[in-house]
Amino acid sequence: MPTPDRRALLHNVLGELHGLVSPAERERIDGLRERLAADRIRVLVAGEAKRGKSTIVNALLGRDVLPTGVTPVTAVATVLRHGTPERLTARFADGRREDRGLEELPALVTERGNPGNRLGLSNVTVHLDAELPARGVEIVDTPGTGSVYEHNTAEAERALETMDAAVFVLTADPPLSAAERTLLRRATRHSVTTFVLLNKADRLSEAERAEAAAWSN
Ligand SMILES: Nc1nc2c(ncn2[C@@H]2O[C@H](COP(=O)(O)OP(=O)(O)OP(=O)(O)O)[C@@H](O)[C@H]2O)c(=O)[nH]1
Ligand SMILES: [Mg+2]
Question: A Pfam family for this UniProt protein (predicted)?
Answer without folding.
Answer: Dynamin_N
